[in-house]
Structure formats: structure tokens, C-alpha cells
Amino acid sequence: MKQEVYNSIEAWFNSYVAGFENEIEEIKLNINLKRNHSFRVVNLIAELSEEANLNESDVILAQIAALLHDVGRFEQLAKYGTFSDTEDINHIKLGIATITENNILSELTEEESKLVIECINYHNELVLPKSIDADLLPFVQILRDADKIDILHIVSDYYSNNKQGNNKRLEMELLDKTDISKKLYQSICDEKHVDFKDVLTLNDLKLSQMSLIFDLKYKKSFKIVSEKTYLKQIFETLPKKDLVIDMYRQMKIYLENQL
Ligand SMILES: [Fe+2]
Known about the structure:
This is HD domain-containing protein. The chain contains twelve helices and no strands. By secondary structure, the protein is mainly α.
């Protein structure tokens, strides 16, 4: 895989995103947020590549998948005004359809295109199927780690520096109630990433995002999350209830044990 191939896909991506000019301030902000997220995920791939055992050519291929992994978010946001995935409005389906319709992967071999599509398909799955192809696995894992690290970056920054309600789409339009879902507590005690269907309030959302650490694979990923103090930053915006303090403590210990 040559750098020029990545460069031409990046040029398409930039012009595609520029086509989503929007007058609504919050939509404009979220389009930029997703654009910048995509590029940061591309950069994180390079940081994690050594541990994932990817060679130079593999890294470029993984970066193509990273650049395109959320390409469906732009249409989802501009057309439907949401970041919530449903059966019909799903950013993965929308993204793969966009890639296919625009023939974005025409410079890749059939095998490489398939790999990029599979990475996009699996990047957001709660649990990966055990049958996943061994050659595909490092590409999927590196994308999942890079994506989660940057989600933690975005949300910790947002919760720390914004008034609640500033970006309703980023808050998944959830209500700011103090109750914590019991299923969510159980998932965290079991060291499992919380299923979005168990997220009922904004506090649940924050805790579920903290629980992304249970899905990380690479030592370097834990190191980045720990050094950037993402968990602490989110915890500081949560109500200091015993249950919340207990969950934070469990996640902190888990993170420290992976370093
Ligand atoms: Fe993403």
C-alpha cells in the first residue's frame, strides 16, 4: 500500500466533508468535530502500530480504514440531525454505502478493500465475533483502540469545558438525572464495556464512555488514556455518589493494572 493511495483518499474525504457546509451552528460544530476526530484516529494508528505488529504498508491500509471509519456520521448528522444509531439510520451502513457509491477504494486490491470495509463494520461492535479472521484482527483492534482513545479525548474535554446542554447531540439527547442504571453498574463490576442500551441518563453515558477502557487491547492505549487523565476528568463532572466513586475506583485500578 502506497502513501499516494492514502493521499488521494484523503483528498476525496476533505472535499466530501466540505460539501456538508451547514448554517446551523451546532451541526457545523459537530461536522468539524467528526472531521478532526477522523484525523486524530489516523494519527493514533501510527502511535499504536508498533505494538500491533503492522508493517509500513499495513499502517497505511489501517489509516485508510481509520480515515473512513466514521464517514457515515456526516450524512447521519446533516440529513437526520443525530449521532444516535438506529436500525435505519446507522452510521456504519451509511458510511459503507457512501464508500461503495463513490468508488473510494478503487485503487485498492479486492482483498484490501474487503479489509477496510470489515474494519469499518466491526469498529463499533460491543463484542467481536470469536470467528474473526486472524489476519483481519490486528487491523480491527488497532482501529477500535484508536477510536476509543479519541472518544475519551473528545468527551472528557467537552464535559470539563462546557455547560451541560451545550451540545445536545454529543450528549445523545439524554437527560441529566442523578439515577445510575443497575445494569451499567453490573457491567462495570464485571469489567465490561457498558452496552448503550443500558444507558438511560447523561451520567450513565459518561460512565459508559469511561468503561470503554475495558475494550482496549494495547498497552500503549492504556498508557495514553492514563497519561491524559481522561477518566479523572470525566469523573470530576459526575455527582460524587458512593456508587459513582466505587465505579471510578474500579476503573482506575483496572487501568493501572494494564500499565
Ligand atoms: Fe469514531
